[in-house]
Amino acid sequence: MAKIIILTGDAAETLEVFYPYQRLQEAGYEVHIAAPEKKKLQFVVHDFVDGFDTYTEKLGHTWDADIAFRDVDPADYVAAVVPGGRAPEYIRNDEDAKRIVRHFMEAGAPVAALCHGPLLLAAAGTLHGRTSSAYPALAVDVELGGGVFENGGAVVDGNLVTGRAWPDNGPWIGAFLEVLARQAALTPA
Known about the structure:
Residues 3-177 form the DJ-1/PfpI domain. By secondary structure, this protein is α/β, with parallel strands linked by helices. It has one domain (3-186): Class I glutamine amidotransferase (GATase) domain (Rossmann fold). The chain contains 6 helices and 11 strands. It has helices at 14-26, 87-91, 95-107, 118-123, 139-144, 169-186; strands at 3-7, 30-35, 40-47, 56-64, 67-68, 79-82, 111-114, 131-132, 148-149, 155-157, 160-163. The strands form 3 sheets. Strands 5-2-1-6-7-11-10 form a 7-stranded mixed sheet, sandwiched between helices. The chain has a two-stranded antiparallel sheet with strand order 3-4. It has a two-stranded parallel sheet with strand order 8-9.
């Protein structure tokens, strides 16, 4: 069974972790969650409230990480997913998280990133010349990372599939599954 790695940590958006985790399992992949340490992670729930200029944050579900970033051999996986929430703000400083992302991006392997997820891609130096969506307030971060920001729910640039936030989960993962299918068709059995 082909394996996919999700790169995340504490304060990741619950819906942005669990939707791809469960949807990719349903599609027949073995999915592992990697984090700075192999431990129980605390996810959060972001919501949009009338009158607020940005989202609010509440505690969400907890879930065990399967593996620490330092122990990940990216060659064991066919693709990577980087959910949003606040986790990408600090995992982008982890050298192993950047190493893992670089592996997939340089190999042209499928990568899905949502919301704040492109912060890790920018920190890894992999957005240069690439078109990426993200949470709209991060347009400047995508551009400072050398990318071109597109405000869309399922932006596909070759192997890279990005979206704005959890309301884009369906189109975002739908487009990612199409990229995975194309990649599988090109890979010798």
